[in-house]
Give the backbone structure.
Amino acid sequence: MKRYWLLCLLLLVSYTPSPARQAAVRPARTYTFVPETVFPMGSRPMRVTATFQLVITRDKVTSYLPYFGSADAPAYGNNNGPGDFTLLQFDYSEEPGKKGATIIRITPRDKGDVRRIEMTYFPGSAYADVSLIFNRRQSIRYRGQVTVSGTAGR
């Protein structure tokens, strides 16, 4: 019986979220990503013009990125492309990656077709890779330059 209670206590302690996880984490910096190359699934890489961008701020994520790919169920009546959206409610996480990179993951709560945005930022070179993962479309990856403004403190 003692083992049972000890096991229950251990499981309870291990599943309690930490205060850092409970608080809503928002980016302390502003990231402006301008793609140079697009890597669609099942196609060759393409160069794009500098009119496209992804902006990540504390309050919103604004995306105006090109999309090349197929959809399982396209949205009717929408004149915007799948890479053209604004997120006001999203979950944000940032973690260190390989070779000094920073991996930023954004999970939208207010956009049905976008499942996740992942940006791998290389601070030494000012380049980043961005992946848009969709629910009903093929994923797409971009490589380009990123400008970071703001402070690193939270």
